[in-house]
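pasting for ref
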Amino acid sequence: MEKIIALASDHAGFPLKEEIKLHFEKEGIKYIDLGTDSLASVNYPDYAHKLCEAITNNEAQLGVLVCGTGIGMSMVANKHCGIRAACCSDTFSARMTRMHNDANVLCMGARVVGAGLGIDMVDLFINTEFEGGRHTARVEMVNSYDK
């Protein structure tokens, strides 16, 4: 099964989300865009919620949320059962959170990372698989807090 990546942003993250979409289109990566669709001010929790629902409803396997810092989006996303969101600003963290934490949502700050770094982080995030092994029990512990 080919992965579908959900994308969402607030107004601050909109330009970076659009750059990620262009990259996905160029690379043939399937995605769904859950908004926002302009620079007009919006509330980031609304868009984080839409993306998390898309993942929990199996409309997408992974997600990318972009706001000004990535922090607000990650706070909202981690309130959702079954979501393991990581706010990253470097490629090492973006890769390791998939390998060791089985994160399913990458959160980024458009005011923190530029388009080049952001796209590199997204590529690493969506192309890295969970290692399992000794990390499985830890991820199961994290998931147990959803109950």
